[in-house]
Design a protein that fits this description.
Length: 234
């Protein structure tokens, strides 16, 4: 698995870890035959990502936030680590992810269904291979201080939703959440002699990315934070 680094000027792979399942780490002879260093134990993929983030921070690598997919966003210990270290993040989570709200824990998709129409804002997150990428976005304040839920909805298929818990100090949440496209580009090889994909799992993002913008009001604020009290009861 790989860690990528993205700026407004480009992107690159900056670190890697080898994930070994328990069937490997529990078999010393197999590890020795493969040349795996002695003492290598089992670690989950979120734990390996945490190790790579620690190394990037220790090396003084400048980045504004961490973005990763659902397998990592749904991992509570990883989010706890990032918050304890005051590392900003925008992490994808599954639709059944539970968030603490003033009225109790609620599923992400339940919160999306209860949003009033005024909560959604149609904004662009920049140009893609097929033109400008526009989505409907909503930003909901969670019950925990400093945490909000960013929700992305397809314009042509409103049932297609994506969910991203994010820390308050990420100024450009919607652009950050769209970094899956950069992860994909980092994971595609241009050499015919190597596999066409590598397993990029997370990305470190600088503050230089373009901000989310309104197609009709370019100077308008990116997103309006919706209080949990504004959610519909049905």
């Amino acid at each position: 698995m790989f860690l990528a680094y993205a700026t407004g000027q480009g992107r690159a792979l900056v670190d890697r870890e080898l994930y070994l399942p328990r069937s490997w780490t529990g078999d010393p002879l197999r590890l020795a035959a493969a040349g795996v260093p002695v003492g290598t134990g089992f670690a989950t993929k979120p734990e390996l990502l945490q190790q790579m983030i620690k190394r990037a921070a220790a090396a003084g690598m400048p980045f504004g936030w961490v973005a990763a997919d659902e397998a990592y966003g749904d991992n509570r210990p990883l989010r706890d680590y990032l918050e304890e270290e005051e590392i900003a993040y925008v992490l994808a989570v599954s639709r059944d992810h539970l968030l603490a709200m003033p009225v109790g824990r609620r599923r992400a998709d339940e919160l999306a269904a209860r949003l009033p129409r005024r909560a959604w804002q149609r904004l662009s997150c920049g140009d893609g291979a097929k033109g400008e990428r526009r989505y409907d976005w909503a930003l909901v304040a969670a019950g925990r201080p400093g945490i909000s839920l960013l929700i992305r909805r397809s314009i042509s298929r409103p049932s297609q939703l994506a969910f991203y818990p994010a820390t308050k100090n990420v100024h450009d949440k919607a652009t950050a959440s769209d970094n899956n496209s950069k992860i994909t580009k980092c994971g595609c090889s241009t050499s015919p002699s190597v596999p066409t994909r590598v397993n990029v799992k997370a990305i470190l993002v600088t503050w230089t990315l373009s901000q989310l913008r309104s197609p009709t009001k370019p100077s308008a604020p990116s997103l309006t934070l919706i209080s949990g009290n504004a959610l519909r009861n049905s």
